[in-house]
Specification:
The chain has 16 helices and 44 strands. It has a 39-stranded mixed beta sheet that branches. Strand 28 and strand 29 form a beta hairpin. Helix 15 packs antiparallel against helix 16.
């Protein structure tokens, strides 16, 4: 037992002596090779290397410990160190060490700080470092024979493993107009199997983008790493996961995203990203990509993106191929319109309130991207200026097939569903050589019932009927937008647009609208308008920059024909300018009034002939009547004033005149007495030319002609129905002769054509007017006649100058007496 204890004691003492001797020898070896170690590192890196202390360490295995190591930066990039670390531990291999060689098995860096810089020419400081390594290896090969002659033991500083704790990387990219600066903190790196001929295992965790916490995880392989390649060309196979990723930080890290994505995504919170990186860092292929997070203005996570990106075939990432799917639910239209091709395709006046649901697929490169996008908006309120107002609950879906090619966006086999409309369309939007829009559209047979709920202009109407169309649309876009060019046909079948309160409007209207560029032709039109049956409706319409014009518009109705030309334009001050040239031939006036002015339907009849040229401009409908100006001519043939006997109302009030107590006498022949007994006023023609201004219609040549009398007058009718006319009723010569048999003094009321002429005034508010003869003028005429007759008797008809003078003096005195 004692022998054993002595043997153990001797063994331990021997081991201790050997260990002490080994430490002394190793320390001596390290001291002798301190400078050579530093020189070898400098030769390998091509950079100056400094450290405060280099000593032997046995923590975790035998190795070298360098305090406050720093590796200088290439002065072309910065003046601060490329790498500096609080402590570098280099684990050594035992066997080479006993043979007098130093081979580093593992690097362990504690709190290293690394700066990676890309200069204005696009060159990385890592590339310069790799170049130094190659030059160092070439120099080493050239001097190998000399070194072997000196019998110096080699120093190997290429470890098979690297471990980093609490690391820090500052990335600076000066190749862009606005330099990129990214900080990566709390890096934990573990690389195993770092051999040039094989791939090495790598595991990284870090805080990507300062202040986000531990949000980066990388697990995979890198290599092989042959010395002739730069680090960005080493093969990689990484599984990467990023949490709490903010898009502004990502866009700074990946500069092309600044213009491609970040301004349009409306990111409101952090993203999660998971992907597998293959290929090289310079030309990666990314598979299994999944991105989730809140985008397009959403307060909650609403976006999921899955896909693949292949950048292995092009010289830049913009040339890479992408393939993926995206779902955004809910989404905001205002944010979607920020995406370039949607911003170009959708009008600025299109707005929404409420969530949209978006699902899409995409494939291609950033400059040649094919995409299919489905937007569902059944629970969304959508407004398009004053044209559309879709409420919640009304179906709405947009299905886009888009191919974006540099300066153009091509739409292939797309569709729009709204209410019961299914609109198929295709076309393109070009940016060069000028902004041009071209589309082909085809609709299903659309039942218009219920569309008054979507179209504000029809909100007070009930709608019905079927419309369908096949149209191509072209438009040049720019600062000064040009006219819309449309080709195709639109068919209306049993169209109904009626006011709910009055029932007025269009019914059972059938027509074909042929679109011809900037014009359209109405053909084969027929139906009801305010209860009036229309047939053979036709005409030409033209789109103006701010309105609509029409020419050769015509239709047959009420036994006659209407023809019209005109325009309707919106002015810069938002007023509306109307121009109308109309012509009516042989239209049933009573039927027309029954439909348009029912208060007058029982007051006049006949065949209407009418021509007018009118102009007006107003900001509201109430001021239209006051703004209208123009001129025209009208005639009613074979007509009658109903329940209004003009002759009776005028002549019956001619009473109390000297020698003419009552013009209407029972002794008048039966033929003429019937004029006073009838209820109506029939006439052959009623005609006038007129002028329109300040809300009234003026005429100075109104005439009414019958076989027994005529009327001529001048005056006006207001749009408010007020009327005021000064006229003369001229009875026929035959009637006048019969009247003179009964009333001798009536001869002083006869005009030069031998007709009884009775001046009268017609005034009131249509259709209720009063006819009053001008008794004062009639009395004055009779008195003049009587005085002249008396003077002729007194003077005996002498014609000498003396008698003539006396007669003129007496006549003037009488005229003054009777108030002439």
């Amino acid at each position: 037992m004692s022998i054993r204890r002595k043997a153990v004691t001797v063994l331990l003492a021997t081991s201790a002596c050997v260990l002490v001797l080994l430490v002394v020898l190793l320390n001596s070896f390290v001291d002798k090779n301190r400078e050579r170690i530093r020189e070898e590192i400098e030769k390998s890196l091509g950079r100056a290397v400094k450290f405060d202390d280099l000593r032997l360490s046995f923590w975790g295995g035998i190795g070298l410990l360098a305090k406050h190591l720093s590796i200088a930066e290439d002065p072309r990039f910065a003046a601060t160190p490329f790498i500096q670390t609080r402590e570098l531990r280099m684990e050594l291999r035992w066997l080479p060490l006993f043979l007098g060689n130093i081979e580093i098995k593992k690097f362990a860096l504690d709190e290293p700080e690394v700066q990676i810089i890309k200069n204005e020419e696009g060159i990385f400081n890592l590339s310069a470092l790799a170049g130094s390594e190659r030059r160092a290896r070439e120099t080493k090969r050239e001097s190998r024979e000399v070194k072997e002659a000196k019998k110096r033991h080699p120093l190997s500083i290429f470890p098979s493993a690297i471990y980093v704790s609490k690391g820090k990387i500052d990335y600076i990219d000066r190749s862009f107009k606005e330099p990129v600066e990214i900080g990566i903190r709390n890096i934990k790196l573990d690389i195993q199997g770092l051999v040039l001929s094989r791939a090495a295992k790598i595991k990284i965790s870090a805080d990507l983008f300062e202040g986000q916490g531990q949000n980066l995880s990388v697990v995979g392989r890198i290599g092989p790493m042959p010395g002739e390649r730069e680090w960005s060309q080493y093969p990689v196979d990484f599984q990467v996961r990023l949490d709490s990723l903010l898009l502004p930080q990502l866009s700074r890290a990946v500069p092309f995203l600044r213009e491609s994505l970040s301004p349009y995504l409306g990111m409101t919170g952090p993203l999660m990203l998971e992907a597998k990186f293959l290929g090289t860092m310079e030309q990666p292929r990314i598979t299994g990509l999944t991105v989730t997070g809140p985008l397009f203005g959403s307060a909650e996570k609403n976006t999921t993106l899955q896909g693949e990106l292949d950048f292995s075939k092009g010289h830049s990432w913009r040339e890479g191929e992408v393939h993926g799917k995206i779902v955004v639910d809910p989404a905001s239209l205002e944010y979607l319109k920020r995406i370039p091709f949607l911003k170009q395709a959708l009008p600025s006046s299109l707005t929404s309130e409420g969530p949209l649901s978006v699902a899409g697929e995409f494939q291609g490169s950033f400059d040649d991207l094919k995409a299919r996008l489905s937007v569902k908006a059944a629970e969304t309120e959508i407004r398009y200026g004053n044209w559309l107002n879709k409420s919640k609950g009304i179906p709405a879906e947009l299905d886009l097939k888009v191919n974006r090619r540099k300066d153009r966006v091509v739409f292939e086999g797309s569709s729009l569903t709204l209410h019961n409309l299914k609109l198929q369309f295709s076309g393109l939007l070009e940016e060069s050589p000028e902004r041009r829009l071209a589309f082909q559209l085809r609709s299903n047979d659309v039942d218009l019932a219920g569309w008054e709920k979507l179209l504000p202009s029809l909100s007070s109407y009930s709608t019905g009927g079927v419309v369908r169309g096949e149209v191509s649309v072209k438009k040049i876009l720019g600062l000064q937008e040009r006219e819309l060019n449309m080709q195709g046909t639109v068919t209306l079948d049993q169209l109904q647009v009626q006011d709910r309160k009055s029932g007025r409007g269009v019914e059972k209207m059938t027509a074909r609208l042929s679109l011809r560029g900037k014009e359209a032709r109405i053909e084969k039109g027929q139906g009801l308008w305010d209860g009036i049956s229309l047939s053979n409706l036709k005409g030409d319409l033209a789109w103006l920059p701010t309105g609509l014009s029409f020419k050769n518009l015509s239709f047959q109705a009420l036994g006659g024909t209407l023809r019209a030309n005109g325009s309707w334009e919106t002015r810069p001050d938002d007023s509306v300018q109307l121009a109308l040239d109309s012509n009516i031939e042989a239209m049933d006036l009573n039927a027309l009034l029954s439909q348009k002015f029912p208060n007058f339907k029982d007051h006049i009849e006949g065949q209407l002939y009418f021509k007018a040229r009118l102009r007006g401009e107003s900001k509201n409908s109430a001021a239209w009547q006051d703004s209208l100006e123009g001129e025209g001519a009208t005639q009613v043939r074979g007509g009658s004033f109903k329940n209004f006997n003009l002759v009776e109302r005028v002549l019956s009030k001619v009473t109390g005149l000297p020698g003419v107590p009552n013009l209407i006498s029972s002794r008048v022949p039966t033929r003429y007495s019937a004029l006073f007994q009838r209820k109506d006023t029939p006439f052959e023609t009623l005609a006038a030319t007129f002028a329109v201004k300040q809300g009234r219609i003026y005429s100075d040549d109104l005439s009414l002609v019958t076989p027994d009398y005529s009327v001529r007058g001048e005056g006006s009718i207001g749009f408010d129905g007020t009327t005021k006319w000064d006229a003369t009723l001229a009875m026929s010569a035959q009637f006048t002769q019969e009247l003179l048999k009964e009333h001798k003094n009536a001869r002083y009321m006869v005009d030069r054509q031998g007709r009884l002429a009775v001046p009268f005034r017609l005034d009131g508010t249509l259709p209720y007017v009063q006819a009053r003869p001008d008794l004062q003028r009639l009395a004055e005429g009779i008195q003049k006649g009587l005085l002249k007759k008396g003077m002729d008797r007194v003077l005996g008809g002498e014609k000498d100058e003396k008698n003539k003078t006396k007669r003129d003096w007496i006549q003037k005195g009488l005229e003054q007496l009777f108030g002439k």
